[in-house]
Design brief:
This protein is mainly alpha-helical. The chain has one domain (2-84). It is built from 4 helices and no strands.
């Protein structure tokens, strides 16, 4: 009888752990979706709007663009050179 109780408790614990893992992965997925929405919003913005969001410093802008999935490397460097002149 005690053995049955132990097995039942063990199964309940496993179910709870799996539930927690599901919840955590759902939260992570939600956060990822949110961050992607933010990235897309930035990509759609013109460069002038992005510079208003950040201090007028090319390093920050480059870091921002590189952290976004799409690489806009060359046009950005050209733009930075024009900005610094």
């Amino acid at each position: 009888n005690i053995e049955k109780k132990r097995k039942k408790q063990a199964m309940q614990l496993e179910a709870i752990e799996e539930d927690d893992i599901d919840k955590v992965s759902k939260i992570k997925a939600m956060r990822f979706k949110e961050s992607m929405k933010f990235s897309r919003r930035i990509l759609v913005m013109p460069i002038s709007a992005i510079t208003k969001l950040l201090p007028k410093c090319c390093n920050n802008l480059e870091a921002l663009v590189q952290s976004i999935v799409f690489q806009i490397d060359q046009p950005l460097q050209d733009w930075c050179q024009q900005w610094n002149q």
